[in-house]
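User: what does the whole thing look like in 3D?
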Amino acid sequence: MAKLGSPVDLEKFRQQLVSQRDLNLPCVTICSGTGCQAYRAASVADAFVREIENQGLKKKVNVRRTGCHGFCERGPIVVIFPQEICYLGVNNEDVPEIVSQTLGQNKLVESSLYKDAKTDKSIAYESEIPFYKNQSRILLGNNRLIDPQNIDDYIALGGYSALVKALFELGADKVLQMVKDANLRGRGGGGFPTGIKWETARNAPGEPKFVIVNADEGDPGAYMNRSLLEGNPHSVLEGLIIGAYVIGSNKGFVYVRQEYPLAVQNITTAIEQAQEYGLLGENILGSGFNFDVKIHRGAGAFVSGESSALMTAIEGRVGEPRPKYIRTTVSGIEGKPSNLNNVETWANVPLIISKGVDWFKSIGSRGNTGTKIFSLVGKVNNTGLVEVPLGTTLQEIIFNIGGGIPKGKRFKAVQTGGPSGGCIPESLLDMPVDFDELAKVGSMMGSGGMIVMDEDTCMVDIARYFVNFLCGESCGKCVPCREGLRQMLIILNNICSGKGKEGDIELLQEISEVMQDASLCALGTTAANPVLSTIKYFRDEYEAHIREKRCPAGACRDLVAYYILPEKCQACLICLRNCPAGAIIGKKDTVHVIDQAKCTKCGTCIEVCPARFGAVVKLSGQTVPVSALGGTKVIRKR
Amino acid sequence: MNGIILTINGKQVKGKAGSTVLEICEANGINVPTLCHLKGLTDVGACRMCLVEIEKERRPVPACTYPARDGLVVQTSTEKLEKHRRLVLELLFTERNHLCAYCLASGDCELQILGYEYQIDSWRYPYSWPSFPLDSSDKHVMIDHNRCILCGRCVRICSEKVGVHTLDFGYRGWKDRISADLNQPLGEASSCIDCGACFQACPTGAIWAKSSAYRGRPDQCKKMRSVCALCGVGCEIDVLVKNNALIRIDSTELAGDRGVLCYKGRFDQLYESHQGINTPLLRDDSGKLKACSIGNALDEVGEKFGNIVARYGKNSIAGIASSKASNESLKAFKKFMTDIIGNDLIDTIDGDEYRTIIQGATKFRSGAGLNIETTLEEILKADCLLVVGVNPLESQQVAGSYIFRAASQGKANLIVLDVDKNPFGFHASTWLKPTKGKEELAINALTKAVIGKLSASNAVKAKENTTSLGAMNITQANKEAGIDVEDLNNAAAMLAKSKHSVVVYGKDILLRKNPKLITAILRLASKSGKQNPKKPRVISLKPRGNSRGAWNLGLANKKEFSLSGLTKNGVKAVYLLLADDYIDDTKIIDGLKGAKFVVVQASYSSPVTASANVVLPSPTWAERKGSYTSLDGITKSTPKLTQPQNNIKRDEDIIRGISKRIKISDRRS
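Assistant: Here's the predicted 3D structure for the full assembly of 1307 residues, as structure tokens:
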């Protein structure tokens, strides 16, 4: 492939691509994001290729392995274009039928369609499935249309036309103005206005300048950057080139986690292809602008997602943050102006350029324009990636898109913003989700993690979980974060194991205050959020743990006991046989008793006890009744 | 012009632009507590003790890293800040085993001082009782991780000032730990040069020196400003003395430009490495050295010297001094030889090196003396460094640190030109390895290559002065001296484009006794980038602590001086002033064999004192007030740090004693 030397070359090439593609030809797309790959999507894709060939449809059908579709709960996902018939949970055995029925005879295969839980009706088309219907997928939408390993797919869809517009039509000043006008805010969590950041880097003295993609997404349960970088790497790259052009940078970095092998592979391929096409390198499209990108793989430190730590890591040193009273946009990598934006922020840029400021501002709410991708996980029916306009309510996201809580349980809280975010209670479900509102209630946007919790979740335990995570990820440089987290963890461990004492809550609040005020980087200043927000909204749970030694959710092992109600036990021997610790004493016709000294509180007994008996109960905060020695005789139910 | 005005605690305070808030507070006597800050090192804002409140800042900020601006309104001590500081201290005290009663740093600990200041008498958190290992593998320094507060001062001094990057942080979070090299015990960390800077930088008892441990707290010691006389770098030191013993040697300004010390200066002087001489010794009739009174010894020397001069003339006594002696001793010694004995048969032990340098310099530019050399500070400013024939880490370790420091900040290229046995070459970006004996060819080839890389106009000028290099070519250097052509060109390019190149040479070059080598080095330096052609930036690492002082005083003979040659040609007696030098050089011992009468004035027993007829005691460096001149010509003095044993007299007094006695016998002739 010869390099594209001008915008005309690119446009010609695009037309040539489009003319070669018959859009009416059926196309089977198989989601090959990491989630679906875990469900053996690669094997399903192979099965489709094989089966299509076997049934003699090879010339009549296209097959494409695409990036993540987002509905990860139900993978592997297969969408058949042009009708956009969506099959969920497809496995190898389903493939022959889908090929013969849908591709061969244009009929639906009922068993693989989405079934609405409320109406019990099947839904055939992707756009009608509630999970998708209620989203605005301006960033993720193209994932399902593109083979991320093939730049031609991106170009055929109009890719790199925003770059052409920026380089040849608008010029740097106007592009900057557009990004500022659109009020694009940093999607990495801070919500800092991207345009202002660019302007600072642009005006900062010093050469060379650097632009960086932050793809060091380390929040537990969050994977939106990963899916973008895996599924549509060129959109990120195009944004980066435009940003570099505005800022006046000739060198960019993609800082991506080593733990994201597919993302590393796809962005590497994307950069190579862009270089081959002349979209990266010297004199891009004949504009005279030079820019190249290098991939820097992160070595697995959560704190390296912090801008100064990330830049220190790129310099080749230990990724520890440093004080930023001179911003990294002025003094970053090697003391040079360095502009860092999140994957999602960069991916928004081409959209603003090609579709315009007004279009972008029409999405979202005032001051919070555009969409945000959330990874909706936890106790929710439709786990997956959700892209909604900023300002959408939690209710909408969790119940309309997420399908509510499984097994009819009650919603308790949602944790947003990754480990340093806060827990938001049921009473705030109507809250619009945007940068400012989340901060007001003691949480944050973070990179967009959203973990839903139901009534079985203990909020003290949740706080402890996140503090434990952060304790392991604190770099150890500044005292409040390093030691504050550890002391908080010790106190929370005590509370969860029934050793909590009066004054612990106040001590937690005091440490939190110092951490918020005195820590060096954002990891430390926000690390107390999970503790503070749970104390704020669920103080009664803390008090129950400390005063009554009771875990209201029954989640803290040290505070619960399992007990067999003598009047209900039918001596069926099931729990006795299943107990892994051999802690259940009993025999035929004799009421079973749990030996509390031996019980490991695994909960197997409560799970296996037949529902019609319901003899095993979980107790917390009360003494376990003493059972008669030698056992009592069973009172048989009729 | 660049003054700024801030309001600190309600008062208007002046400061310099570009400084931090902490620096301005310090300059104005406003106390802000710190732990991780050490003046001269890059501040990192890790301990959070120096937090201050600044108007319009959302959160308190660390004063050490906050750039001061005109008009800032700063509060250094508010209720909130003091509460935060107290909690930070509380967290630090519960973090590891800070139990002062068992700690050797008690009384000399910054954490302890702050603990008292903030009245930390109990803590509300569970004590951690960590059990980190104790690293005692190093010869001089011990690391007790249990007392570490992770301030990182040792890490920064090691990389920023010593330049060896041995220490860094290992692990993460509260498991964070100082680790050496690839997490090896310090004693096995090959990059460590044992300089002990980490020990002095440590604010607590986490890093300590075996030599000083439990021997006395600073407030129990007398602290005296002195100068180290071991290698000629001339490091200023603070010596702590207790009970007439050296307890500890500290750098006066650790993170300053000349602040780093080496293991010899910091630790070795605290140990007696050789058998000392506390009393004069006289060889008796049976041929054995026996102790005697100073009067007897001086009588013997006076009489024998008098007799020899009377019998063989004044050119029958030669004097040799060690350049480790103080300027005062050397001056007296020279005066004795020239005025009392009346000859110029005088030299220093390192006279050969002196003659090589001087002859080489004169050939480069007539009339040039030792003053042609530049100062050690120039190394720190260098953008290109060429090290020829020396391993500074062995001879002048602190100079090695300067070189690392200049090179490690990525601003200076380091070129080493020496045989492949010199381990210093591993630190170089380009290492030219000439075959032994072909150094001159290699240097000249490099000079030629540098001229070739200069811009056209400069090259014409350069060529005018180097016509002697005409026939030289690089291929020849490659063939005969074994220099890699690519390396040579790389090195030449670096030197040619440099703006501040410095050449350092030393031991191996000086041992060649070939002045042409020195001329070649000076010529190369004068062509390397921007240079004063008459005084190119070159510095020689001289063999002994006071070499420059001795040479400046004219102790080294300008003419060829060979002890064995002299004794063959009529010299009957030799007077050696060794001071606290320890000499086991067979050349000197063999040279002495030809003399009838040998007087050695020394602090330590050595093979040389064993061959003497009379041994006179000499106070050591610590026992004597005196001045020393560094290798780049700076003279500093030291007080008497300890009382000499047996009240040994000063060198000058002993020499005067001989003078007095010699006069009487001299009149006879």
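In plain terms: The first strand of chain A starts at residue 27 and ends at 31. The interface with chain B takes residues 301, 318, 320, 322-323, 325-326, 471-480, 482-487, 490-491, 507, 510-511, 514, 516-520, 525 of chain A (CB under 8 Å).
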